[in-house]
Every structure is written in structure tokens, then in C-alpha cells.
Write a structure and sequence with these properties.
Radius of gyration of chain B: 17 Å
Number of helices of chain B: 2
Shape of chain A: globular
Strand content of chain A: over 45%
CATH topology of the largest domain in chain A: Elongation Factor Tu (Ef-tu), domain 3
Helix content of chain B: 10-25%
Order of helices and strands of chain B: HEEEHEEE
Number of strands of chain B: 6
CATH class of the largest domain in chain A: Mainly Beta
Largest interface: A-B, 9 and 17 residues
Distance between the termini of chain A: 38 Å
Largest sheet of chain A: 14 strands, antiparallel
Number of domains of chain A: 2
Oligomer: heterodimer
Number of helices of chain A: 1
Order of helices and strands of chain A: EEEEHEEEEEEEEEE
Helix content of chain A: under 10%
Shape of chain B: elongated
CATH architecture of the largest domain in chain A: Beta Barrel
Structural class of chain A: mainly beta
Chain lengths: ~250, ~160
């Protein structure tokens, strides 16, 4: 049944950690700009110009001290940026998702009298606000060797390039065994006769450790309709998810 | 008037198929047993209520809430009642597990209410029922199905 949908079966990845099962709820996934009032004396109604872009996520986490669980992800309280990606419902190729590069402000626990122990985590954006997009992998994908385009299912963006506005991709690498893995996007205009070729700039470069997450932005290039996530490098196991957003208008950060 | 976007046969069949594919029931069917079910673990599913679901409705259309009853039967006086109890619980848990992996019944409904958003949690309630003076151990599960925009609102 298309149409209105629930948020059941969602996923949350933070810095490469798969935290969906350790997450109670997300009380806010916000973004947008703070408009600046620019009303002059000739105007009878407020005038505003677009201001700074901002965003963030407020996460309520369960207490999960397992290896690879939420405690391992949040407790370091890093001063460097973290990348959080939320898939809006059961992850599949094309499912809407939202990512935020930002500072993790806190990991504040509240132990209630009923025995519950929930922890609040806020991520506030750094530099890029918040970015909605779509999954280009069916949730976390497992590659046991480098995968070329022929072995990968395409993500159909539904339309030809809207113009040379580029794209942004977020890669969440959950697990990795090997020398290195490079996750990159290839494009085709028709998913057929037009052979898949690298999207210029849409590559993570060689990743050698997991868990980790990265944000990659291309230059202002036209991106074709069909995208495939391919991997190169020498490895026996790579578990990762990729969020892609092709800009519809020229976007400056 | 638009045809309501609801497929009752498909919904009941989907609920039945999950029981069949579980592979633990001797017999599974749509509609309640009016005569004693055969020996062994049996399953039946039927509709119980159909109405509006205001919390998910839009400004110009009404969502539907269909409540289906799933029931597991087991003869109450078998050789090994403890084993029957375990098999019944296993089947009940397995059925919820299968439903949990098919939240939309393959797209027939917006979702079945796995976490109680429409007010009641899905839970098996166990008890006994007498059919033709034959007592069965039974388990009942209300499956609440929410369907998008089934009826239009107009004047």
C-alpha cells in the first residue's frame, strides 16, 4: 500500500555503528536555515532572506554496553565530527534517509525508578546542516570482495540530471576486514546501453578501519539517473550503507 | 464514488499464509471452527471489526482499522499437555515473528499494529473453548490492521 507510511523498521547508523536496535526514539531530526529579517521602511510585511543552514538530531538511546553497541559509539564523546544517518523505514534501495555531520554534544543518562535507563544524545550540525536523501544500498550491504557495477542493483533517481549541481554521499562503514576498501558511485543514463562509469569525485578513497563514516561531496557536475554503489580494494568483508542526495539546485555550504 | 482501497480476501489470505508457512499447524483456515477442530495444532483467522482509524486519516479521506482474530487450537486433554503447551507457545511466537517481518502484508495495508499505535498491543491470550462439548486449549490474537485512505470524505 503506497502512500502514508509508518516509521516501523527504521535504522540509525552513527559513525559506522549500527544503532537501530539500541535506539528508543528520535525526538527531533531537524534542519533548515535561520532567516535574517530584512524588512525596510517601505514594506508593510516582514521580509526575510535565507540565513545560516543548521540542523541536528536528538536521539534517545537505550543502555547497550555490548561491543559495537550504543555505549561504544556514544561514550567517547568525541570532539571531532560524527556522521549520523537515519533511514526513515525498513531500509531498501531508494528509501528516504537523512544524515547529519555534526558534534555530539552529550550522552546523558537518566536512570528512572522503574529500572529503565535511557540516555539522551544530541548531534548538532557542523558546516552542512542536515541532508535528506535516499539509500543507494539496501540498508547495510555486505561485500566479501570488490564488487563491480554488473553485480550491483541500481538506484533509480527517477529523472535525468536536473543540471550540474553535483551530489553528496554519506558512507557508513560498519565492519571491515582486509587491506582497504573504496566505496564509490558509478552512473548511467539508462541502466543499459550507457555503461556505468565513475561519478567524478564520488569516492570515499581507501578506507582501512571500521567503524567509521564519511561525507563526500562532488563538484558541480551533472549526475545521471541511475547510480550504483561499487567497491574496489582488497578485502574479505565490508559492511556498509550509502546515502545519496543529488542536488536539485545549486547548493553552497 | 471511488471504490474503497481495501482487499479483504487478500488480507485474510495473507494472515492465513503466514500460519501455513510457519509449518507448525495441522490445519489452517479462514473462519472460525464451528465443529471441533481435528487433532493437533490448528489455526483459524477471521475478521472481527471494521471501522475508521481517525489517528491516521487525512483531511479528505478516512483510514480503516480492520481487526482480525487469529486463534490457535489444541485438544485440551492430550497425552502430554506440557508438550502441547510448549508447542502452542512456540507456534504463537513464530506467528508473531513471521508477521513482524511483513509489517505491510506485502503492501496490502499501511501496517499491522505491532506496537499498539491504535490503542491495543498485539498479544496472544490463552484459555479454553468448548466446541460441541469438546474442550480445546486456545490462544487468541487480535491483529489490528491499518489501511490508508480507504474512504473519501465529501458531501
Amino acid at each position: 500500500m503506497a502512500g502514508k507510511s509508518t516509521g516501523l523498521g527504521a535504522a540509525l547508523w552513527v559513525g559506522g555503528y549500527d544503532l537501530g536496535a539500541s535506539t528508543n526514539s528520535l525526538s527531533r531530526i531537524g534542519g533548515g536555515n535561520s532567516p535574517l529579517p530584512m524588512t525596510d521602511i517601505t514594506q508593510s510585511a516582514m521580509a526575510r532572506e535565507g540565513g545560516e543552514r543548521d540542523g541536528g538530531m536528538d536521539i534517545v538511546s537505550y543502555w547497550n554496553p555490548d561491543a559495537g553497541g550504543s555505549h561504544a559509539a556514544y561514550s567517547p564523546l568525541p570532539t571531532a565530527d560524527v556522521v549520523a544517518t537515519y533511514a526513515a523505514y525498513t531500509p531498501a534501495i531508494g528509501v528516504p534517509c537523512v544524515s547529519c555531520v555534526g558534534k555530539q554534544l552529550n550522552y546523558d543518562g537518566a536512570r528512572a525508578q522503574d529500572g529503565g535507563f535511557l540516555l539522551n544524545v544530541s548531534v548538532v550540525a557542523n558546516s552542512y546542516g542536515i541532508a535528506w536523501g535516499n539509500l543507494a544500498t539496501a540498508g547495510l550491504r555486505t561485500d566479501t570482495s570488490a564488487q563491480a557495477a554488473a553485480a550491483v542493483t541500481a538506484y533509480d533517481q527517477g529523472s535525468a540530471s536536473p543540471g550540474a549541481f553535483g551530489l553528496v554521499m554519506f558512507a557508513q562503514l560498519k565492519a571491515f576486514t582486509g587491506t582497504s576498501v573504496t566505496i564509490k558511485l558509478q552512473e548511467s543514463s539508462d541502466n543499459g546501453a550507457d555503461a556505468y562509469a565513475d561519478v567524478t569525485g564520488a569516492t570515499t578513497g581507501a578506507l582501512t578501519t571500521a567503524p567509521q563514516a564519511v561525507r563526500i561531496a562532488t563538484g558541480a557536475i551533472a549526475v545521471e539517473r541511475y547510480l550504483k554503489v561499487v567497491t574496489t580494494g582488497t578485502f574479505t568483508n565490508a559492511v556498509f550503507a550509502v546515502h545519496v542526495y543529488r542536488h536539485r539546485v545549486a547548493t553552497v555550504y | 464514488m471511488a471504490t474503497p482501497d481495501i482487499d479483504p480476501g487478500g488480507v485474510l489470505t495473507a494472515l492465513l499464509d503466514h500460519a501455513r508457512l510457519l509449518g507448525q499447524f495441522e490445519q489452517a483456515r479462514i473462519t472460525e471452527y464451528k465443529t471441533p477442530p481435528p487433532n493437533g495444532l490448528c489455526f483459524a483467522v477471521w475478521a472481527e471489526t471494521l471501522g475508521s482509524a481517525p489517528e491516521g486519516s487525512g483531511l479528505a479521506s478516512t483510514n480503516a482499522l480492520v481487526v482480525c482474530m487469529a486463534r490457535i487450537y489444541y485438544p485440551a486433554f492430550g497425552k502430554d499437555e506440557a508438550l502441547h503447551e510448549v508447542r502452542m507457545l512456540t507456534a504463537a511466537a513464530g506467528y508473531l515473528g513471521r508477521l513482524g517481518e511483513d509489517l505491510t502484508l506485502a503492501g496490502l495495508v499501511r501496517n499491522w499494529d505491532v506496537l499498539g499505535q491504535s490503542g491495543e498491543l498485539p498479544q496472544w491470550t490463552f484459555g479454553h473453548a468448548s466446541i460441541d462439548n469438546k474442550i480445546s486449549r486456545i490462544g487468541d490474537l487480535s491483529i489490528r490492521l491499518i489501511l490508508n485512505d480507504v474512504w473519501a470524505q465529501g458531501v
